[in-house]
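[Automated response] Your request has been received and processed.

Submitted sequence:
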Amino acid sequence: MLALETRSNWAGMMASVKVGTPVAEVWTPPATVADAVSAMNALVAWCNDAGRSWYGTAGFVWSWTNDKATRGALLALHDVSGSFIFTAAGTTTALLGLATHTGVVVQATTPADGTWCPGTSGRVPLGAGQRWLRGAGDGSGAGSIRPGVSALAAPAWRSKTTCHALDVARLQVELAASSHPRRGWLRLSTVAIGASEQYVDGDPDFSARWRRVAVGKVATAAAPAGLYNVTADFAGDAV
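Generated structure:
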């Protein structure tokens, strides 16, 4: 999954959450939120904060699934401890797909803004990454060398996704609405093996399963059998 930062009105989101008998509390996003992953991380962090009236009795997490009809991401907010009431403002529903609902899970019925989940799994397959040092300099060891430690440099990946016209159409729409410079969140996974998800190793933050990235060149080319190859470059440091 790729969640691009977009120029949408993320600051206009608002939602109230009520767990048990205390009054509902209202969430608004931090000013830094400009994409779906940041928004869900912020919402879950707020729900689990010690300042909430339900702290210690409820625990929230979020998840995503591939919307096969649009190739976007369908988000879900879960209370692992029981039922809650979620009331969403119109902008929240428009951007995250989360509507007013009562239950253990608030499941989106429309895809989140800026998200791309190609194919049947929704995963963006990543090739072997490499680390790169910024700035000029000779790395041969003779004369002036490039400053920095290669092992601590930012990683860079290239993805190649073979997909259908629907996937390409979704990506083009989301890229057109993305921020400049382009950046977002990338799920650090390769293709699935069976029902499991294989995570990319060799990255300082790989255990978080997500990485904030700068999005570079994206190219589309026709492939046999009416398919398309989409290649994209990602750098491990968002601009």
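Summary generated for your ticket: Residues 190-207 have pLDDT under 50 and may be disordered. The longest strand covers residues 210-223.
If you did not submit this request, please reply to this message.
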